Amino acid sequence: MRVTPLLSLPIATAVLALATAGPAFAGGKASPKPRTTVGTAGTSFLTATAVRPGQSARLSASTGDYLYWSFAAAAGQTDRIAVTVTLPAETNRPGAATWTVDVFDGLRRRQACTAGPQTVTAQSGTAKISLQCTLRQIRSWAEPWSSDPLPGTYYVRLSAADLSEQGLGLPVDVQLRIGARNGNAEPSGAKLKAPLSPAINPGATVAPDAVPSVDPSAVSSAPKPVQRAKSWLSWPSTRWWWTIGGGVLAAAAAVAGYSLTRHPRRWFS
């Protein structure tokens, strides 16, 4: 019996597609997808728009709005937030405005920035301002009472202050970019090469070869140690005698005073 293998058209097409895609998978890793730009922003912590580190956000907003974004930070990362605000024309702005970028952790605690201008005042003739905030390195652990940054979700807030009534609602263009640099999750300087203070061993003696040689003239010119006064607890001591004598005199004075002040009893018939 003779069997002739037959391949249908769909199977042949699939085989041809796999043969063409073979070189693409030769490296073992798929090519990364291009990162898209986020075009929205939230107005509160609950509605914050999620942005991945390395991804940018660009949108049009109004002066006076609070803009919120959120991103996830892992242990060992040092995140850097960069914001660029393009302001409207000078003729439409009545005066200066102060722009601020703040970063909060998942507990709504404001995190300190280690570098970058976090607050910038835009004068009436300024066309564009740049704000930056570099967070501290994310730690893998921290004490409960400390405010060290821990892994989790962080929030970025962009706001404007010192605005006049005529300056509210003017259109602005905002561009945000979050970058992350990986590193060691342990805090810097966590290990000591040597103890801060040497160990103290009471009663330990120094080896004779370790004793440095001393010049005899230096020993003779050195001040003599002052002899310590004897403690009053030592026996016999002058203080003991004074104490005993004072006690005897006090007892005698008490008996004499009692006998002098005691009134004799009189019996009346």
Report on the architecture of this protein.
This protein is an alpha+beta fold and 269 residues long. It is 16% helix and 25% strand. The strands form 2 sheets. The chain has a 5-stranded mixed β-sheet, with no helix packed on it. The longest helix is centred in the C-terminal third of the chain and has 24 residues, at 238-261. The model is unreliable at 1-34 (pLDDT under 50).
Number of helical runs? 3
Which consecutive residue ranges, at least 5 long each, have pLDDT under 50? 1-34
Helix/strand/pairing class, anyone? alpha+beta
In the CATH hierarchy, the architecture of one domain is Sandwich
- Widest sheet, order of strands: 1-3-8-5-6
Tell me roughly what share of residues is in helical segments: 10-25%
Q: How widely separated are the two ends?
A: 163 Å
What is the radius of gyration? 43 Å
Sheet-strand content, in percent, reads 15-25%
CATH class of one domain: Mainly Beta
Q: Main beta sheet, described? A: 5 strands, mixed
Mean pLDDT, rounded to whole units? 76
Tally of strands: 9
CATH topology of one domain: the name is: Jelly Rolls
Helix/strand order, N-terminal first? HEEEEEEEEEHH
Shape: elongated
